[in-house]
Design brief:
Distance between the termini: 29 Å
Number of helices: 8
Number of strands: 0
CATH topology: c-terminal domain of poly(a) binding protein
Low-confidence stretches: none
Number of domains: 1
CATH superfamily: c-terminal domain of poly(a) binding protein
Shape: elongated
Largest sheet: none
Helix content: over 70%
Radius of gyration: 22 Å
Structural class: mainly alpha
Oligomer: single chain
Mean pLDDT: 79
Strand content: under 5%
CATH architecture: Orthogonal Bundle
């Protein structure tokens, strides 16, 4: 992206007070959007590192439990009994890699964020999402509505 720098004082001098304030507001909004995008990129990088750590932990679970490998490959359906008695980190490491690809097909740009949101749900609801495409699509639409609302509120709060 090519960015052209201009003498803003010259531009602002030629404008009326309202036009000048509108330009300043627009420039400030653009600056906030750039900062937001930079923050999002940092968060996505942290999330990728977190997912990589989860994948490494998941790999260790494969090595320690051959049945775990068969479950992950989808040879056996995941059940709530399989998720009982394991730590929260292990649960996320088992469910995340199954859930993420399904979400990525429908919403590739926000698949990581939505997967993270869904991993906070209880096991029963997650198991439904893994087995019912329509329920998954509805839940993704709900998550997108929540994210859109949060984004709008964040920018409205910054403008005031």
């Amino acid at each position: 992206m090519n960015v052209r720098f201009v003498d803003t004082n010259t531009i602002l001098y030629k404008l009326s007070d309202k036009e000048r304030q509108d330009k300043i507001d627009n420039w400030n909004l653009i600056k906030k959007m750039v900062q937001y995008n930079e923050n999002q990129q940092r968060l996505e990088m942290h999330h990728r590192q977190h997912v990589q750590n989860q994948n490494e932990m998941h790999h260790r679970a494969h090595l320690q439990n051959p049945m775990h490998h068969r479950q992950h490959l989808g040879l056996e359906p995941l059940t709530s009994e399989m998720l009982q008695g394991i730590s929260e980190e292990e649960r996320k490491a088992i469910i995340g890699p199954r859930l993420y690809p399904k979400i990525q097909v429908m919403e590739p740009r926000l698949a990581s964020k939505i997967t993270g949101m869904f991993l906070e749900l209880d096991n029963t609801e997650i198991l439904v999402l893994l087995s019912d495409q329509k329920a998954l699509m509805n839940k993704i639409n709900e998550a997108m509505a929540i994210l859109k609302k949060m984004f709008q509120e964040m920018f409205q709060g910054q403008q005031q």
